[in-house]
Amino acid sequence: MTPHLLLGQTLAFTGDPFLQPWEDCASHHAHGGVLIEHGRIAAVGDGAMLRAAHPQARVTDHGGDLILPGFVDAHMHYPQTRIIASWGKRLIDWLNAYTFPEEMRFADPAYAATIAGETLDLALAHGTTTLCSFCTIHEASVDALFDAAATRGMRIVAGRTCMDRDTAPPGLRDTAQSAHDESARLIARWHGRGRATYAITPRFSPTSTEAQLDALGALWAANPTCLMQTHLSEQTDEIEWVRGLYPNARDYLDTYESHGLLGPRAVFGHVIHLEPRESDRLAEVGAAAVHCPTSNTFIGSGLFDLAGLKARGATVALATDTGGGSSFSMLRTMAAAYEVAQLRGQALHPSQLLWLASEGSARALHLQGTIGTLSPGAEADLAVLDLASTPAIAQRHARATDIWEALFPTIMMGDDRAIRATWVAGRPVPRPTRSGAA
Ligand code: GUN
Ligand code: ZN
């Protein structure tokens, strides 16, 4: 296979900007290049030097556009694509009014296939090359997403959402046994096949019985390379609800921990209103806390304590949480993370925002070195950004004196118009047609 050389600006992390001064954490080439061979990154460096060293390579010249690793969205719900931006509710009412009725439609495998494809195409158009998604209780909803990802060559993490308590509506309820058995079948069918990772997925403690959490804990113990994803401490009403349902638990995290659902491959969404024991325990175990800032403001959940969790050494990732989140864009999500941090008196540097949306999320999904990084050996999933994609961004970008200042207006004001190209496993993704534009 002929190697492919992408020319453009490149920006690659060499360290973690939460642990080291940001000036020491990244390598920027104004005229850089990324050499792709067999779907992987073979080299990153000065464009002219790479061109001279690989005269046989096909060349795609992105000019002044910025080549980055594709974004990694560490927590989202593909079945909620059609209910994004649904008005006026907080978490529990929002679930009952919008989410559960929509998730019931996924009993139809054809509907699931349609939404799976649409969601992945939206993600790619926004420069997101990997999603970690909840599905519904329907086994076919999981097949639909893994199938759609395989068709597009995408690396994906997903799992069948499990709910067996009478707090979930009758049409969306399973049992401890069926949740275990169907999840086990899906693991056998998909986990480690191509670019797929299975995540065992109890929705959250309020919709599972202890018997179901036990069954899923046992399933995870039997399949330890799977991830486990769920929700933790998103709204204060929800935490009160958990306290009533689990009177013997020390705290919300304990409802998972005491059933074998806490470990380094656990990925918890939201994680806002924590007791000190919970923050310490997450950090100690190496489980991931996923920041979902557009959702946390949209549903009115609260302000994630990024600095506090990082100071404890916790693994933190970034995610859209669509459709609770109000955007498919990881650029918009970075902007929201910046705004939330400002409200907590913390100024996040653009390097920290970008790191969370790429390397941080990849680490949380135990895919570090594989995706979310511009480094040799990684899979060639890339997002190419136009740093002047709208007049408002362009006029601010024109004043920039370094790459971070050049990138920050796109982080704060950018959306899918800033995504010039997306590459998956070394291949360019066909450009989306803008439906509804005519
Ligand atoms: N908690 C339990 N289920 C959900 C969900 O679908 N979205 C959000 N944001 N929180 C949840
Ligand atoms: Zn969620």
From TrEMBL:
Cofactor: Zn(2+)
Keywords carried by this UniProt record: Hydrolase, Metal-binding, Zinc
Enzyme class: hydrolase
Cofactor note: Binds 1 zinc ion per subunit.
Domain Amidohydrolase-related: from-to ranges: 67-429
Documented EC number(s): 3.5.4.3
MF GO annotations: guanine deaminase activity
Domain Aminodeoxyfutalosine deaminase/Imidazolonepropionase-like composite positions: 32-57
Pathway(s) it belongs to: Purine metabolism; guanine degradation; xanthine from guanine: step 1/1
Catalytic activity: guanine + H2O + H(+) = xanthine + NH4(+)
Keyword Isomerase on entry: no
Biological role: Catalyzes the hydrolytic deamination of guanine, producing xanthine and ammonia.
Similarity-based family: Belongs to the metallo-dependent hydrolases superfamily. ATZ/TRZ family.
Protein name (record): Guanine deaminase
Organismal lineage: Bacteria, Pseudomonadati, Pseudomonadota, Alphaproteobacteria, Rhodobacterales
Gene that specifies this protein: guaD
